[in-house]
Amino acid sequence: MADIVEIKRMLADRAQAVAEMLLPGGRKESQEWRAGSTAGEKGQSLGVHLSGPKAGIWQDFATDEGGDLLDLWMAVKGGTLLDALKDASSYLGVTHPEPFKEPSKSYQRPKRPDCRKPEAKVHDYLTVDRNLPGYVLDAYKIGERGDEILFPFILPDGVLALAKARKAEAKASPKPTAGNCEPILFGWQAVPANAREIIITEGEIDAMSWAAYGHAAMSVPFGGGKGAKQQWIENEFDRLARFETIYLSMDMDPTGEEAVAEIVSRLGRHRCRVVALPLKDANDCLVEGVTQAEMDDALRTAKTMDPEGLRRASDYHDKVVHLFWPAHEEREGFSTPYSKLIGRLHFRPAEMTLWSGASGSGKSQMISDCVPHWVREGSRVCVASLEMKGEQTLRRMVKQTGGVDRPTEPFIRQCLNYLDPGLLIYERVGKAGVQALLEVFEYARAKYACDQFVIDSLMRMGVASDDYVGQEKAVFQIVDWAVEKAVHVHLVAHARKGEKGGGAPSLEDVKGASEIGSNAFNILTIWRDRQREEDIRKGGEGADESDKPGVIVNVAKQRNGDFEGKVGLWFDQDTYQYQSTPDKAQWRRSFIGRGQQERVA
Ligand SMILES: Nc1ncnc2c1ncn2[C@@H]1O[C@H](COP(=O)(O)OP(=O)(O)OP(=O)(O)O)[C@@H](O)[C@H]1O
């Protein structure tokens, strides 16, 4: 589902059609749609603006109701804001395509903790030390178990997804009451069903403190930080679509800032605002007596996350130092499974790699060979397989994952399970426009935190092979998107050079607009020695004894790396894997099986 901001804009763009559909008994008078009431009969008291900046805004003077077209939708059809959004999305035809395969996770529901309404120590601690009013404890359904506070994480449908307990004393840290529970936001139970604004805090008590100031608030489940700490986003993504404004009221420290950056990049900078508080967090404000007016002001002046513009060189100090001296556990980018390229070639965030080569040279196959390795490296890859059905793509990848020719049924399942957490396939055989594809990618990035995207191939993006302006535009859009989202995009494109031409194509041989190559951060070209393959076929086994590699990969460009040059690889026809050595005894990488150890050939 698209988010509320997008849906509202689309409804307003076609205000007349929407007003006519919702209020069929009304009629157009000048620039308004006039009806008798939200029941839709003829009359004058209700007017909907049809154009200009107020398009979609309505008011019924007889009842004093009013709002935007989503409010009108609810008033006419009943139901909650979420129902209206779902309904309006399908009316507008903006439901997102379901991915072919989603990274799957299974969670357990915790047992309802044995607790009661706070009466003793927990009550005193929260109402006296933390200054929270009793009605807020009720609204968030806080529990008391001896000297422990119980925070229930309840889904909007009333199901308990997670519970955390902590001692009712300063500096105690909350712990989940059971393992492997679904990380969700804390506080749905206290958020009005049709609220369009929400505050997200870094802790449960801060969310309740904002509620004490009269604002709907929820807390992230596992504090600040990035990556896995914010895994809740994929579970909450659709439920948060209904909020027009998301205020982030995190602690003002580095982990709070990391959380803000991750949440904003995934929930959309157009609807997130960052709140700066007069004290460290919302509960400190409540305890110290910061007034309602001051807190309202903090929301009113919350910073929008518009992209920042020009900066001074010294603003980049930390980032430059980090490039020279990355922290030990951090990698420069994702790599390949080939020892000859380890440490020499990286697929970095905010970059695009162009994979080029003649038809049938093995571009798709080599990317596919890298995927299980990327999954091992912790990447989440979204592959837009525009030339092949999903099952064909996975057939090849299963061989490459398991390092076998003919896997058994249980082994196939093991390979697919191995790939599951890190692979999303967007299946659309046929031409897909760039914009449509980027929308799918946007969704995969936002909801599933995918960090590498494969487009196979540029030719299937609905741009003619001689439309150089179109190709240039497409590549521009893709690179812009990769940079904005800090992800890596692999784009497959054909090479000008035919199969017979000597050796791996060079920079100039990328077919189409020369801007394609100029915009790529890395250019890899693949060449396979078909003449030798032919000799082997004719000459039988003996001709295979030469140690000459059958495939050449040319790292023709690597803007942010030091290595450029050619390396030879050997193709294993049984497993579809590429190897760095002719010594067959060292072939076969397997990501499955004994110790699940990957061997890098
Ligand atoms: N070095 C090789 N030796 C033998 N077969 C190969 C080799 N490289 C690729 N192939 C085979 O050639 C076929 C095409 O490979 P692949 O689809 O990866 O090529 P491609 O470069 O992406 O082609 P296209 O640009 O036409 O899509 C596959 O059946 C693959 O197994």
TrEMBL record:
Residues 95-116, 580-601 are annotated as: Disordered. One of its GO terms (biological process) is DNA replication. CDD domains: TOPRIM_primases. Residues 327-585 form the SF4 helicase domain. PROSITE patterns: SF4_HELICASE (PS51199). InterPro entries: DNA_helicase_DnaB-like_C, P-loop_NTPase, TOPRIM_DnaG/twinkle, Twinkle-like. Signal peptide: none annotated. This is DNA primase. It comes from Pararhizobium mangrovi.
